[in-house]
Write a structure and sequence with these properties.
alpha/beta, five-stranded mixed beta sheet, 5 helices, 5 strands
Length: 178
């Protein structure tokens, strides 16, 4: 019985850790899923810049979509062909998971079109909040391939959140995403 429990725990740990260990990210369209356009563009540009600085071809979705368009349009056949012709097969969807450090990775493995149509009402920063957790969902060729959390603690301003986000994301890219 102990052996079975040990085996189950090892397999579950491998599943959790394995969600981002083998991404082999070479390119990505970065999609910010935020209510406020300012927050969306800020996250997209920052994540795309970090990916490019680490040798990963990246492009924010604001360079592909017209301002005000729904994100779900990215899953259209015609737009996905344009994206593929530009050399991108991976989407990185980023959103605020919440204002706590105790979040776990999502267990949902929704298809890309469902994930793109999901909204997020959390802004990057709220007054009197000291930590923010971001979640990045990765899709390759329309299929879910992994997720990762970026935890930013001890923040007291919006700029502080962005500094911690850049620092922690850079570590994640170098360690888990490449």
């Amino acid at each position: 019985m102990k052996f079975i429990l040990f085996l189950i725990s090892i397999l579950s740990i491998c599943t959790i850790v394995g969600q981002t260990k083998n991404l082999h990210l070479t390119n990505a369209i970065v999609v910010g899923q935020m209510e406020k356009a300012e927050d969306r563009y800020t996250l997209e540009i920052n994540l795309a810049e970090l990916l490019v600085n680490n040798g990963i071809k990246a492009n924010p979705s604001l360079n592909i979509l017209k301002s005000g368009n729904e994100l779900a349009i990215l899953a259209n056949d015609s737009l996905s062909k344009i994206v593929k012709n530009k050399g991108y097969d991976t989407y990185a969807l980023i959103s605020v998971r919440g204002y706590d450090n105790n979040f776990k990775r999502t267990s949902h493995k929704d298809p890309l079109n469902t994930a793109l149509s999901t909204g997020n009402l959390f802004p990057i920063y709220r007054d009197e909040i000291t930590s923010v957790t971001f979640e990045v969902l990765f899709y390759r060729n329309g299929q879910f391939i992994g997720s990762d959390l970026i935890k930013c603690g001890n923040v007291s301003t919006r700029d502080g959140v962005l500094k911690k986000f850049r620092k922690n994301t850079n570590r994640k890219i170098q360690k888990n995403w490449k």
